[in-house]
């Protein structure tokens, strides 16, 4: 059975505000040996898989500095608030409205995933939003340039296969919606 590794020490190495790099020293419960591990502590992510009343998937295309290319993704962002101020579902609804201008509808929790548990400490909270409507203009942050893209669910597999949709967390969110019977 896999057991947790007891933490011996934890030392901050770098703080960039949005993320912190931590060096943890832990002991293997199997061998007793100690090792250093670097962990990136980051705010949780929120993602919405929004469907309009006529079953169109609302997606966003935006430039991503990490990959240096435009990426077609489901709307989402950082969980700005704490649990007392903004629930993950409220945050996902906020991100959807800010990035696309779509809101409303019926919301359902699809799942919570760990984006990269070998390095990142955060979670991604994923929600389905059915019957959303365009209710306002997007309210983009200064660091965002976003194009709203409406797709039929039948278009998604080909766009993933072609590499047009290549954000791993978006693919995971769409898979949760698909296997839940929503796409």
Question: What do you see in this structure?
Answer:
The chain has 183 residues and is of the alpha+beta class. It folds into two domains: 7-42, no CATH class; 45-179, Nucleoside Triphosphate Pyrophosphohydrolase. The protein is 17% helix and 44% strand. The protein is built from three helices and eleven strands. The strands form three sheets. Strands 4, 7, 8, 9 and 10 form a five-stranded mixed beta sheet that branches. Strands 1-2-3 form a three-stranded antiparallel beta sheet, with no helix packed on it. A hairpin with a 3-residue loop joins strand 1 (7-15) and strand 2 (19-27). It is elongated. The protein starts with 6 loop residues before the first strand and ends with a helix. The mean pLDDT is 95.
Record the SSE blueprint.
Elements (H helix, E strand, L loop, with lengths): L6 E9 L3 E9 L6 E9 L2 E8 L3 E9 L4 E5 L2 E3 L9 H13 L1 E2 L2 E8 L10 E11 L11 E7 L3 H6 L6 H12 L4
Parallel strand pairs: 4-10
Antiparallel strand pairs: 1-2, 2-3, 4-7, 5-6, 5-11, 8-10, 9-10
